[in-house]
Amino acid sequence: MFNPRDIIEALAGNVKQTKSPFGIPKFMVNKWFKDLSLPKEGEYLLFTGLMYQFTPFIEKSTQYLEKYEGTKMATLLKYARYVPAYLSGIGLAMMTSGKEKKEAGQTLKNIALLLQKSKINFGYRPDLDNYSGILLYDMGDQKGFVAHAKMLAQKLQNAGIKKIITVDPHTAYALKELFPKYTGISFDVKPYFELLDLEPKDCDLQVTLHDPCFFGRYLQVSDIARKVLTNFGISVSNIRNQGEFTSCCGGPAESISPSLSNEIMEKRAKELEEPGKPIIAYCPICLGNLKKSGADVEDLSTLLVRHI
Amino acid sequence: MSSISLDFAEELKEYSEDKALECFNCGTCAAICPLVHDNFPRRMIRYIQVGAREKILENSDELWRCLHCGLCTHTCPREADPGEIILGLKRFVVANWRS
Ligand code: SF4
Ligand code: SF4
Fold first, then answer.
1. pTM of the prediction?
2. ipTM of the complex
């Protein structure tokens, strides 16, 4: 386990300086929309919160942290001075492979396509699409989170935004529950799958759905995701820990203790592997973590796009 | 023996809702927590109840093992919100580092 103080101060410093927990400038992270001609205006604003875009960087950073955790070397190196370097900056961006970055972008393209096919009137504004600050909240840097959330909520309000589509559970929770509570500014926030209205090809398929904690338990919208799948003729196997009683994928512990994160992930992967394949995730952190366990897993949007 | 701070619960009100006294120590949260770690989070809540402020600061690294998965909060029979209490303790410790 790393010293939480070093990790938190590194992440908080990055968010303060660059508005991103990994200190990588937004133009290097957010490129998925560049070869699409998405409208800027619409009834809804598509707000990715950059979580899918961050996943390849998180994976790379965890690989480095994993190498040091629990080794003698780690004690000698004194985490405070060396470890945060693996968590941030252009260096991390350079170390991360283009293939993984492309894959993360493809998921967002799929989501945009699903919304278009469902005739949802939405716009995308890269200038308004920012990290929600949720990691600061989860780590207990309340001051840092509130300052970041206020800045962002104000920016969205000034742009006249009222309705927002989110793509991941962490950003959805931040915007739907935390922003009204801590910034006093509310938006009508919907996860993208709640808006889907598609004409699917009938498919004879069985999947196991891994509900993320924030969609399954905190926001209680996992029945909507199940309905989307059943409307496609896809049957979802029942597992013991699902919906509001879903089990964590271990992702949130990644930066503090990669070994603890792996332990939780292995347990969850076993629960999911039993009833049938493939496993479907609908959170970038869960997706990345379950992939790491070697599970046969893909994103909900990837599966749906293949069947429209 | 560690010192006891009688106004610890009062001090924590700044960081989270004051729910620790709702807890009757049943252990459901510790049983369901995926960390399966040394009576966590129940032990931390007990420290609050008895004012063991120093114990929390001494063991503060443990708080960041919590995944904020919410399973304990969802199953606590007393609605004591153990997951949010842990988050509140993280905030308390961060504020302490920075003070
Ligand atoms: S489940 Fe609730 S009442 Fe039981 S020990 Fe945990 S916090 Fe206390
Ligand atoms: S929120 Fe934290 S303490 Fe509660 S069950 Fe999840 S990991 Fe355990």
1. 0.93
2. 0.95
